[in-house]
Amino acid sequence: MILLETSMVFSRIDLGAGLILKNHFVLTPLDMQLSRENGQITQRDLAFHRSRSRDVGLDVVGSAYVDLAGNTAPNSVAVDTEEAIPGLTQLAETIHQNQTKAVLQLVHAGRATNKGATQGQTIIGPSSIAAPFAGFPVPEALSDRAVSKVMNQFIDAAHRAERAGFDGVELHGANSFLLQQFVSPVSNARTDKYGGTLVRRLRFPVELMTRLTALVKSFHHDFALGYRLSPEELIADGMSLVDTLALARVLDDCGITYLSLSLRNYAQTSATMPATQTEIVTLFKRVVHCPVMVAGGVKTGPDVIDAGQRSELIGIGSALIKDPNWLKKVRNELNVD
Ligand SMILES: Cc1cc2nc3c(=O)[nH]c(=O)nc-3n(C[C@H](O)[C@H](O)[C@H](O)COP(=O)(O)O)c2cc1C
């Protein structure tokens, strides 16, 4: 979709699955680490989302952990137990008071965490291979049973988000967390049906999304399913654009509501395939039918127009953290009524 008029990014958009947004702007998932030590929602969480979701069409609440062993950082939001539901309900209501839709991002960190964040819980991963950065432990490889347990934790978390009144969930398949670890050949050395060929490495996220689609059918009402991915890993033999374009295509076939790209800059080209000068967002737009969200470095009015030419949804992170009135100012700058 090419937006020809500036004002279109400020107009309504229907993503399907009940996500009718008042405009094309999204508060990107942000783990602000404002929750209690047990992950319950605080007044500071509510205040942050009240002020930052006011002007955008969609607020994706960042990094809610589906199991304490998969927490990415201290004081992140929890969705791992029934006790999390009352706080999450207040959070969803707070966002809805702004006529903004609310999606909860579900995460399991896999090997990309530490015992401080997991409060001593065993750190797990697809295989016993540590992340190639200082300070990350060697994870315990998931057994067959443990793989299904983690998948069930995601399903239970999505069900809790629905009962808390969220309009959908987004799987955090980006930033080197567990779902990405299954897709990446450098973190997944499994020899069962979840490792080896590309088809097998994609199996965990695809099976999970298929099960979530079945769960949503059982709700008998609209509920959105988004997926966020990092398009490529910048390490030797890491997950490539070919891998993630294939993943996007299969997820699209599963019926995801939107695909979200985690980028440093919304207009960046591939670092691992320099021969292609086509921007990464355009490559993904070519392989999926669902709406795409692009984020990374949208800071000014011209950036907004530029990003709006590339994808349906424009994710804003840092600019809105710094200034809750950022979108109003951009609107004025662009002379939109
Ligand atoms: C403080 C902070 C926390 C973040 N937490 C998350 C997160 O929980 N989940 C996620 O997918 N991305 C997270 N991100 C990445 C943002 O969603 C976004 O993709 C990135 O900041 C680029 O957009 P920007 O240039 O508008 O900030 C975080 C970024 C920041 C600055």
TrEMBL record:
Q: What is this protein called?
A: NADH:flavin oxidoreductase/NADH oxidase N-terminal domain-containing protein
The keyword Cell wall biogenesis/degradation belongs to this UniProt entry's keyword annotation? no
Tell me which UniProt keywords the record has, alphabetically.
Flavoprotein, Oxidoreductase
Pfam families named among the record's database cross-references: Oxidored_FMN (PF00724)
Give the originating organism: Secundilactobacillus kimchicus JCM 15530
- UniProt signal peptide: none
Q: Where is the NADH:flavin oxidoreductase/NADH oxidase N-terminal domain?
A: 10-335
- Is Oxidoreductase tagged as a keyword? yes
Entry's InterPro entries?
A: Aldolase_TIM (IPR013785), NADH_flavin_oxidoreductase (IPR051799), OxRdtase_FMN_N (IPR001155)
PANTHER family tied to this protein: BINDING OXIDOREDUCTASE, PUTATIVE (AFU_ORTHOLOGUE AFUA_2G08260)-RELATED
Q: Which GO terms describe its molecular function?
A: FMN binding; oxidoreductase activity
